[in-house]
Amino acid sequence: DGGVSGVYILTSDVTDVMVAERRALFLAEHDELTTLPNRATFQFAVGKALDQSTRDSSQFAVIFVDVDRFKVINDTLGHAAGDHLLQELASRMKHVVRGRDLVARMGGDEMCLLLHDVRDASHASEIAERILGALRVPVELRSGIQHHVTVSAGIAVFPQDGTDVETLLRHADIAMYRAKAAGR
After folding, report:
1. Which listed residue (66, 101, 109, 161) is catalytic?
2. Neighbours of 33 (CB within 10 A)
3. If pLDDT is split at 50, 70 and 90, which confidence band does 17 have?
4. 107-122 per-position pLDDT tens digit
5. What crossing angle do the helices spanning 121-135 and 79-96 adopt, rounded to 10°?
């Protein structure tokens, strides 16, 4: 009987190691809080989109999204409320984008979207408006209390706004800060 329980323990240990390895691989490519792809994964995906769009002469867009006054939420309601807000916004964005599109957390309260196959900047703006509309719905951050949260977003479209990952992200970020400065 001692041998059988020893096999069980060995199997259990191997299973624990495999679970830990899968988790480590997941966290190498994803944000732990939101489970969205992380910055590195997003940049890799934009690089692949650049290659594909260059080959087939298509366009895609990068949208940079930032939660307005996020520090105030963390400072007044606590980090748990801020975490819940980020999880809720991530979930809403994932449900609004099309199947091939990608939502990622870049860090802090910043998220990015990769929109494949956009016809032009106005098409990217239409998709961005649908996303922003989903984010305008109040979020319950404390039991029973609804909070209206706003976000600012900036869009960059390949190839007119940049032909490499860094330039596209920088231009989307600049556009987002202009939106913020113009009144969110």
Report:
1. 109
2. 13
3. confident
4. 999 999 999 999 988 9
5. 140
